[in-house]
Design a protein that fits this description.
Helix content: 40-55%
Distance between the termini: 95 Å
Number of helices: 18
Number of strands: 12
Order of helices and strands: HHEEHEHHEHHHHHHHHHEEEEHHHHEEEE
Shape: globular
Strand order of the largest sheet: 1-2-8-5-3
Strand content: 5-15%
């Protein structure tokens, strides 16, 4: 017995001794990596305790800090979140090696979405590849043509609302209105769900806003990133309530669809939407997605389809309201498109004819968009003579990329749609403009989003001229949003 006890004790001590040595070696390696980054990589000088979190102008509306930073550091810079370095990449030459290879894995920063969603934008590896394969059929061009019919139905509701506001001479809360439109579109197209959210108060948009704000808060407040400290904070309850509400939407949508299946003999015979794909898709082994995986993809799509597209349309309308000459050119293009028609419904073949409108959309996205994907390096990354060590968090800072003077010139703050004329696009690096990321993990819904935005632009400017009543500044909340509601006046043409 004593011999057995001695052997077991020796094994236990050896095991714990090995773990302690392993931990100490890892700690030494981490300190060496941090020291290397501090000495060799450029960036604003950090405070010894809280890093750059409280740098003047950081996280303030207007993105002035971002613009000044990229003017000084035109390939990359290190932003210290406390003692944790985040390397921001802001030039095509810096970004291309990251997004076009498998050198990085998803950053831990994506963990702030946990409990809300762990869908296609969050997962990685073999699981991501399986989900992407199963979901891709939802974005075949034939399916997108089908979605356009439904988009027009949601746009009919929007145009009626704008007519009422124009008749009364009332300003329109643009971000709220565009967010409701985008939510309506995604629920109608992806889930065949009639929410009537544009015609009544919508808690969905309010909850989405709250959840994305909390995510942004956690990303840039180091202590809040960690579960224990966040659990103790007042925002934890709001987070739990918001996640529960969004999951309830999922449960309702899926329950309605399963009930519909029970009444249909052959659901595959009718036009399929995104939810049909999720529920009916099978991999090579005959396995479908689990209930949790379906929930995660539904919530990811509601978030991505509402927040990003709604914000992009908001900034597009705001900037067009400030540029009457460009607005008039869009109206001229739209009038030519609809000439001789009895209604304003956008057809799929119309979208490619909206050349100048698309240029204005892309330029507004360049000026305002900020949805920065993050990775953790699995191996060292060499950029412009500098080496970023393995294990380091890196971020594609697409706002800085889109305002990099080396890429867009010293007039990068100016609205110039001609930047996106075909000849100018062909001269630029493909990684110079990344509204939907790039590489294997580019946004699967980018064509859907562009179809929605072009259709909305055509329908709006066919009937209205837009001017500014009250402006706002951009602020980062996972996506770029206005710091206050933007009020625009829509006038009958």
């Amino acid at each position: 017995m004593s011999l057995t006890t001695t052997i077991l004790g020796t094994v236990v001590l050896s095991f714990f001794g090995f773990k302690i040595v392993q931990f100490l070696l890892s700690l030494v390696a981490t300190f060496r990596r941090l020291a290397y980054i501090r000495r060799h990589l450029p960036g604003p000088k950090p405070h010894w305790l809280y890093g750059n979190i409280f740098d003047p102008g950081f996280m303030e509306p207007g993105f002035k800090w971002e613009q000044e930073a990229v003017t000084k550091y035109r390939r990359l810079l290190v932003f210290w979140m406390g003692w944790k370095p985040l390397v921001m990449l802001n030039h095509p030459d810096s970004i291309k090696p990251l997004l076009s290879t498998n050198i990085g894995r998803k950053s831990q920063l994506y963990q702030v979405f946990k409990d809300w969603t762990e869908g296609l934008a969050i997962i990685e590896g073999a699981i991501w590849k399986r989900h992407r394969t199963l979901i891709t059929p939802s974005f075949h061009f034939q399916v997108l043509k089908q979605y356009l019919v439904v988009m027009n139905e949601a746009l009919d509701v929007l145009i009626d609302k704008l007519h009422v506001a124009a008749d009364r001479g009332e300003p329109v809360k643009t971000h709220e209105t565009m967010s409701l439109l985008s939510l309506d579109v995604i629920l109608r197209c992806a889930f065949s769900h009639q929410s009537n959210c544009q015609e009544k108060e919508s808690r969905e948009v309010e909850v989405l806003e709250k959840l994305t704000n909390i995510c942004a808060y956690r990303v840039y407040h180091p202590l809040m990133f960690y579960g224990f400290f966040f659990w103790l904070s007042s925002k934890n309850r709001e987070w739990k309530e918001g996640c529960s509400y969004m999951h309830g939407i999922h449960d309702k949508i899926v329950a309605e669809r399963r009930q519909r299946y029970a009444l249909e003999k052959e659901p595959e015979k009718r036009a399929m939407d995104f939810l049909d794909t999720l529920l009916l898709a099978r991999d090579s082994n005959g396995n479908g997605l689990s209930e949790k995986e379906i929930r995660d993809e539904v919530n990811t799509f509601i978030f991505a389809g509402t927040d990003t597209t709604g914000s992009s349309l908001t900034w597009f309308l705001y900037i067009m309201a400030q540029h009457s000459e460009e607005q008039a050119r869009v109206q001229e293009e739209v009038d030519t498109l609809f000439a001789g028609r009895d209604d304003d419904s956008v057809r799929y073949e119309d979208l490619k004819k909206l050349t100048y409108t698309t240029q204005c959309l892309r330029e507004s996205m360049r000026l305002f968009l900020n949805v920065p994907p993050g990775r953790v390096l699995k191996e060292p990354l060499k950029i412009n003579g500098l080496t970023i060590p393995a294990g380091t968090d890196v971020q594609v800072n697409n706002y800085q990329l889109h305002h990099n003077p080396d890429v867009w010139g010293d007039d990068h703050r100016d609205f110039k749609p001609e930047r996106f004329e075909r000849a100018n696009v062909d001269k630029r690096d493909p990684f110079a403009f990344l509204p939907f990321s790039a590489g294997a993990r580019n946004c699967i819904g980018q064509q859907f989003a562009m179809d929605e935005m072009r259709s909305a632009a055509a329908r709006i400017f066919r009937r209205f001229s837009v001017s500014v009543v009250k402006g706002a500044r951009p602020v980062f909340q996972i996506v770029t949003k206005p710091d206050n509601e933007i009020l625009l006046k829509f006038s009958h043409r």
